[in-house]
Amino acid sequence: MSAWAIVLLGLGLAVDSALVALALGLRAGHRRVRAALAVGAVFGVVHGVLTLLGSAIGANVADWFARIDHWIAFAVLAALGIKGLLEARHSDDAPRELAPWTVLVASVATSLDGVAVGFGMAVAGEPASLIALSAAIATALGSTSTFLLGRHVPASGRRAAHIAAGLVLIGLGAGFLHSHLTAPQ
Question: At residue 78, what are phi and psi to the nearest 5 degrees?
Fold first, then answer.
C-alpha cells in the first residue's frame, strides 16, 4: 500500500471523530484547550488501538462483529445526537464540563470503522500498523481542531449549532446503518 493511500485512509477514518469532537466542543466548559487536547488524545489513541485490535483479531471474528458493529455505532451516535438536540433547549445555559465517559464512548463509537479496516488488512495479509498510526494522528489532530472550533460558535448561535450537531450525529449513525444494511452480501 502506498504512503498516499495510507495517509488518505487515515484521513478518511478521522472524519467521523472530527465531527463528533465538534459537537462535543459546542458544550465544553471553561477549560477548552485542555479539554480539546484530551479529546484529541483519547479519540486518536482509541482509533489507533481499535484498528490494531481489528487486525489482531482477524477474519474469524470479523463476520460476527460485522453483523452488529453498524447497530452499535448507530445506537451510540443517535443517542449522542438526541442528547445534543435536547441540549439545544438549554443552549443559553453555561456550558458544562465534559464527562470522561462521554468522550470515551464517543471515541469508541467513531472508531468502529477502524476495527473493520484492521480486519480487512488482516484478511488481505497487509500490516495495519501504519494505517493505525495514520488514523491515530489524523484523528487526534482533526478532533482537537474541530473541538476548538466549537468555541467560536457565538452564544446566539449555540442553539442552532446544537441542533445541527445533533442531526449530524444521528445522520452519521444512520449512514453507518444504511451502508451496512444495503451493502451487497
Answer: -65, -40
**How does DSSP assign 53-98, residue by residue?**
HHHHH-HHHHHHHHHHHHHHHHHHHHHHHHHHHHHGGGTTSPPPPP
Amino acid at 153: V
Host domain of residue 149: 3-181
Tens digits of pLDDT across the chain (185 residues): 788 888 887 888 888 888 888 888 887 766 678 889 999 999 999 999 999 998 888 756 656 666 777 777 677 667 767 877 776 676 554 445 678 888 898 899 888 878 878 877 776 667 889 989 999 999 999 999 999 988 777 766 767 776 877 787 788 778 777 877 887 76
CA distance 106 to 124: 29
Q: How much is the pTM?
A: 0.70
Which of 102, 161, 111, 147 has its CA nearest to residue 131?
111
The angle, 0 to 180 degrees and rounded to 10, between the axes of the packed helices 100-124 and 32-57 is 30
Number of domains in the chain: 1
Phi-psi region of 58 (alpha: psi -120 to 50; beta: other; left: phi over 0): left
For residue 136 the three cell numbers come to 491515530
